[in-house]
């Protein structure tokens, strides 16, 4: 169906939370976050655990290698979103990031990094987390949406994205930074770039109307189109339903666009047809996880590294 792409990793890391809850310490600048007053905390946590389990199993069935780590503590309510604290890059490079909320800074796990070193070819690990002491933050591939083909890092200005840290990352990892402002319908800054846009191999999803500077909006669209991508514009309502929070992966039958059931329902028929010209849509119900203000993209840390040994079967890796 589709050729191998450096944009679409074949492996991912997921964290399965045992005590999931929307994090009150991150609600102030995350307008996508909400609460469920009708269910008890234990019921919410149990459903979230099941959503992660079903998604991991569904991805593995589609041919994606899934490394699942358990979070049995109640101290890290947002641990289900590992893409914010680390990223991996071709050539054997790993980055570890400074997190804005103190409640999220303890999500970083040495066992995840050690697994990457054991199972994949890792040349170096660059740790930016010390920048937290200077109140400088860059929340990984939440703060940045990376074009691994065109080597562009798209980043919305917010509490979670410091331009000094972004420049440092781009210098180390050979990306061109493209920073811009984006706001929700109430004029509040979008907290993470990856709820606004998704860059695939042949297409990009973008909530362009949420970029108030028209000239900058055109520059972002033009930069995406320069790489040969079809830009699929998403409405404000579609962004609010997490339609921009998707990720392209490589499965056994070609490329996949993984997104939530809610996001899939928000897309119209023409948009679905456009996406499926190059990749199959694979939706999962993560409606409980979405209470925390993130969706499927946030739940998946893509592994852009070479395996040490070719996997004969897809791996569901449990640790910790």
From TrEMBL:
Entry-linked SUPFAM superfamilies = Pentein
Going by the entry's taxonomy, the superkingdom of the source organism is recorded as Bacteria
Pfam families named among the record's database cross-references:
DDAH_eukar
Under the heading NCBIfam families, the entry gives:
citrull_CtlX (NF046062)
Full protein name? Amidinotransferase
Species per Swiss-Prot/TrEMBL record = Rhizobium miluonense
